[in-house]
TrEMBL record, chains A, B, C, D:
It is an enzyme of class 1 (oxidoreductase). SMART domains: Semialdhyde_dh. The active site is at C149. It comes from Ponticoccus alexandrii. Signal peptide: none annotated. Catalyzes the NADPH-dependent reduction of N-acetyl-5-glutamyl phosphate to yield N-acetyl-L-glutamate 5-semialdehyde. Residues 4-141 form the Semialdehyde dehydrogenase NAD-binding domain. It is found in: Cytoplasm. Pathway: Amino-acid biosynthesis; L-arginine biosynthesis; N(2)-acetyl-L-ornithine from L-glutamate: step 3/4. This is N-acetyl-gamma-glutamyl-phosphate reductase. InterPro entries: AGPR, AGPR_dimerisation_dom, AGPR_type-1, NAD(P)-bd_dom_sf, Semialdehyde_DH_NAD-bd. Its EC number is 1.2.1.38. Belongs to the NAGSA dehydrogenase family. Type 1 subfamily.
Amino acid sequence: MSHSIAIIGASGYTGAELIRLLATHPSFEIKALAANSKAGQSLGAVFPHLRHLDLPDLVTWEEIDFDAIDLCFCALPHKTSQEVISKLPKTVKIVDLSADFRLRDPEDYRKWYGNAHGATEMQEEAVYGLTEFYREAIAEARLVAGTGCNAATGQYILRPLIERDLIDLDEIILDLQCGVSGAGRSLKENLLHAELSEGTNAYAVGGTHRHLGEFDQEFSALAGRPVEIQFTPHLGPFNRGILATAYVRGEAEAVLEALQQAYAEEPFVVVLPMGETPSTHHVRGSNFVHIGVVADRRPGRVIVVAALDNLCKGSSGQALQNANLMLGVDETAGLMLAPCFP
Amino acid sequence: MSHSIAIIGASGYTGAELIRLLATHPSFEIKALAANSKAGQSLGAVFPHLRHLDLPDLVTWEEIDFDAIDLCFCALPHKTSQEVISKLPKTVKIVDLSADFRLRDPEDYRKWYGNAHGATEMQEEAVYGLTEFYREAIAEARLVAGTGCNAATGQYILRPLIERDLIDLDEIILDLQCGVSGAGRSLKENLLHAELSEGTNAYAVGGTHRHLGEFDQEFSALAGRPVEIQFTPHLGPFNRGILATAYVRGEAEAVLEALQQAYAEEPFVVVLPMGETPSTHHVRGSNFVHIGVVADRRPGRVIVVAALDNLCKGSSGQALQNANLMLGVDETAGLMLAPCFP
Amino acid sequence: MSHSIAIIGASGYTGAELIRLLATHPSFEIKALAANSKAGQSLGAVFPHLRHLDLPDLVTWEEIDFDAIDLCFCALPHKTSQEVISKLPKTVKIVDLSADFRLRDPEDYRKWYGNAHGATEMQEEAVYGLTEFYREAIAEARLVAGTGCNAATGQYILRPLIERDLIDLDEIILDLQCGVSGAGRSLKENLLHAELSEGTNAYAVGGTHRHLGEFDQEFSALAGRPVEIQFTPHLGPFNRGILATAYVRGEAEAVLEALQQAYAEEPFVVVLPMGETPSTHHVRGSNFVHIGVVADRRPGRVIVVAALDNLCKGSSGQALQNANLMLGVDETAGLMLAPCFP
Amino acid sequence: MSHSIAIIGASGYTGAELIRLLATHPSFEIKALAANSKAGQSLGAVFPHLRHLDLPDLVTWEEIDFDAIDLCFCALPHKTSQEVISKLPKTVKIVDLSADFRLRDPEDYRKWYGNAHGATEMQEEAVYGLTEFYREAIAEARLVAGTGCNAATGQYILRPLIERDLIDLDEIILDLQCGVSGAGRSLKENLLHAELSEGTNAYAVGGTHRHLGEFDQEFSALAGRPVEIQFTPHLGPFNRGILATAYVRGEAEAVLEALQQAYAEEPFVVVLPMGETPSTHHVRGSNFVHIGVVADRRPGRVIVVAALDNLCKGSSGQALQNANLMLGVDETAGLMLAPCFP
């Protein structure tokens, strides 16, 4: 039995990554690809790496016949996403990859994104898409909100530790390096090869990155009290990958054990032996997360490092994993590709 | 029904690429992984990107029980390869990824590789592994010799043109850029990131590159007369990919038509519309070849450009495609992964 | 004694490179920096790598007091450049880095650039800025036209060979790889890090690249008959550097000797020993050109490879070398920086 | 008046960087270049980017006539360095770029480097080479110990804050990304382009990096009590550059003011306006340090980010700055090169 899939926002990198993954999915069939600014073009014109696939040309999302669609991935920019999704028929299941439905509180949304939310009802309905921690709700959901890629990485490290009350909640620092595809296919000077290759820099320093909205919401809910972490992202000269280095207070053995426990049954989360740390090279192009724990020389301080591919596990891979759950197929379908190294 | 696979030389890049591809193959099961210098180690220790796979530890090739093996990939350096392969039981099918069985004439082998061939009988038996052109023989073969990655790229451009007598055989120039993984996982100064990134250089200039042995053999056989092309490879600051730019004399329309004809039924070779040229970015991590034809401003001169991934279609992907044929399974099994872009 | 310098178009890469070089020039003083779209900003805001320099803020070019300027570098896009330069007082010496005054024939200009030339008188007056070959005329000139960066690289290889009648004029192929800074600081999708890193492609294939206008003009003039070469540029995943690989018909010894002779007294052109070829890594950030000659295995065919830094020797370094000549100071002033490797 | 310079260890990256800088130094003349493993070769054979320089061939250090040398740079690996330096005549001034004379306490040396120190007397004599903080002592010294490149970066951030008692000494975290040239020209698998490009990883996690010996020594001395920071370096896919992100407890305004004060007269240290942070791109190839301060959203927490070029300001540039002081010439001689961007 096959399922009919639509993708809105197919001309961006997360759209392309969805199509890459769906190319080998056993039961999902792409029935419609929308990208309003490029409607009428073939997918191969927009993404030549996908030219070998036999897929429908790009249309506007308004042209899609949603009666024939089981599930729709929406890979639009935030704000546009809520506008479009609120107009889709309620019969179609939706995985949204934008930021629009990640935050449950309209005030939080306004605070981090600068505009009032235009679909607060759906905001309430949406299930937060961090698969490993919202699996049951996702399976039942009509609308799933894909997480921020940095937000996902940090939570893979910190959720099990907060949940088990193993670390000092007031002393969490998350230092992170993100590859450039996280910024999307947008024409900005700092994303040019000439500006970005051969060096690195921090950005959104001091607590201004929007993914902090997700951290605050999720960690505070888990802890039952407000939790505010420090978070500094850096932009690295590579296309795919996030490496998050977390500084926490606790005991390394307990931290490792908690992570091992939390992810023992997870198909995509690999916890490394004590003292080993991961590399983004080794998850590139895949849906895997690698996590490692090291005790600092200073007692009671622990460093935890996690690596994932921002486009895959941090975005489109997660979206597909959730879609699998929502449509009742094997959660790992289309996602067992091994990382592409070197 | 499943087939039992062994890989000798599993600690190099082509070995790793084989394992990456086999990870989603529907019917091949890896039963043994050999790497004599790393025997006893887990695969995850040698290639952390493959640590999620449930695979046997590395052994020496002598430890493999070949009675239980249907097909063995041999990804050793040349010379070592012939020594090992000549000791394997004749019952096991072999796809060799080294240079040892590519040249049919022992004298040619000595000329290009500097040593006498130690297994001339097998050299005679081996089928040249350029799938699209040796498909029937490969399906029947016991020993298939994987082609050089540069040699494959050049042949995808030139074979149909030579075969159809469309170009001047004395005026063929092949200019090529190859990614660094083509040099393998070897500790050489010029392969260090600090030496190789952020620039490019030619190497083996003037007709000394060993893949010329394959070009000479194949093109001369096709033409029924000696053909010697000019060939200049360059080393580019990227890991995967070969871009070959061929300068030939003929008519662009006829050239394009010949390529379209030759590859019309091929699952992995995409011929672009007249005037478009390919990019290695768009085949990275995949088994696809993209080929484009452009007429030069000077009448009677044509430029043909081809792009493939040296580790995949140029080596391990080709090897798997051949193995599929040899074991009678769908030729594309395990190989339909879309390119990994960006 | 010092000279007063202005730069128009200071917010692009060639403008920045001029300022980098002038930072250690013994006698040139930057008096004005113009960039109309960024007028009012500090240079450090536009190019943070130059923030340590004590320089005037950006102004519009109309605001510059040209009475106080000895020489003006003009680093604007073509077409804009001719419009601006035709309005500058005739008392100021000008080195133009655009394409506007490279071609002497207005028809050639229209053919390659698509618009009529608006300052044909100045077009006639301008001296072609390939220093080593136009040194005397440059020293006397009021207006010098900087060459195309690819055009410079090809001419360093081919001029001495054509001039000495050493090669077949109908059989010249120039295959070239160019770093991305050659495309300037422009917001184009294909210049994004995510699109360009980790791969390569050809562009302007078949004889459509505008620098062919320069090749045709210069080589035909040298030969006293029309010369049309074949030229294929590739875009490489590195910021600085051009590697040109030329295929010519002639004798390698004679070719090498001609190059050695031509450049024996040149401070910036290094001819390598027979059989050695250069690398862009080894000229990065400098005004040097490295050239190497190799005999092909096929008699009578020679490969010549040249490397230079497109932003420096291919553009701003050349411009400064010419300015030095025009103002009667040591030709190498400010230009002896060693390449930046690794 | 000129000074005669020797370099021992001229075949490594820091040796090459010294030669690059000395190429435009107004009064230092290179009289001898030693590299025992490559003695007899020309410098151009070992470093083709320096082939245009008219320099002596490589010799063994034993062959150098030290009577004719004013100052010797020693760019050998640690341990070898102390063995060689202890045999040099006491009349020659020495700037050592190894780790051998950075730590004053022989026990500290043994702890961090694993072997007993073989020249403890000289260890005592050596002046720590962080120019801005040891300027007077350096000017008088016979033997100056270049600092670790990471150690320098961290100290530029932290010394003024510790000295002025502005931050909590028990709560300092330094997270750092270092380019690959910091690892030298050594043949290690993880330094290959294929392994290192397109991703990042942490290393020496948990307080095991040797530069912590320097931090502990210097910060404890400054504070008058033991100070132990947390320090996590990462290896980034770029050749040059260190970006250090420090998490400290204090007030951002006071922190910024302290840094502005400390570096007000420094020619190479640029403190950015409040809220701006630096990028390694903008110091590449230069002797400049850029430092920026941002207040975190959590009161009392401050992030300070510093960028420098590990090979230049972090190593050879610092060495030259110190040599200038030791020989009484302008401290900035040979060091005012603007960064090479893009």
